[in-house]
């Protein structure tokens, strides 16, 4: 029987680095809330909005606050995984960025058409989010090749009286 071939060619596959060892940062908010870098803004709280489903939840606001967590990235090909809840009703969108590079923010869409509420996982190359301040922080490496950053998440503004929310479940890097 012939061996299955990869979908991408070898050169494309070589550009990706996978987590072959323990992740430098693994923040699973379903078990523990984790400590933000600063006190969480009033519109962000960590709790279980359904039994067994804890996470950092942002409530709709016209001027939303930003929650930030310390993050270690490893090497030049680091990746960041972000877990969040998606639902067909009552959820809004958020942005994710590293350090002060808000101009490189990535959108996190908390809504979809499926009549379910399910966790979703976005895996993104840190280089996609990395602008000038992130690049400067990446130049300072620790003993294990890790570099320190701050991951920021902010729900997009919602009109007054909106009941939408956004739920952050996981931040992990490698």
Briefly note the CATH topology name: Jelly Rolls
Helix content: under 10%
Number of H/I helices = 3
CATH H-level name... which superfamily?
A: Galactose-binding domain-like
What is the top-level CATH class? Answer: Mainly Beta
Q: What is the number of strand segments?
A: 10
Q: Largest sheet, if any?
A: 6 strands, antiparallel
Strand portion: 35-45%
Description of the molecule:
- It is a single chain.
- By secondary structure, the protein is mainly beta.
- The protein has one domain: Sandwich (Jelly Rolls).
- The chain is built from 3 helices and 10 strands, in the order αββββββββααββ.
- It has helices spanning about 10-15, 125-130, 130-140, and strands at about 25-30, 45-50, 55-60, 65-75, 80-85, 95-100, 105-110, 120-125, 145-155, 165-174.
- The protein is globular and about 45 Å long.
- The N and C termini lie far apart (about 35 Å).
Short description:
This protein is mainly β. The chain has helices at residues 10-14, 126-129, 132-138, and strands at residues 25-28, 44-48, 54-59, 66-74, 79-86, 93-98, 106-109, 118-125, 146-155, 165-173. The longest helix has 7 residues, at 132-138.
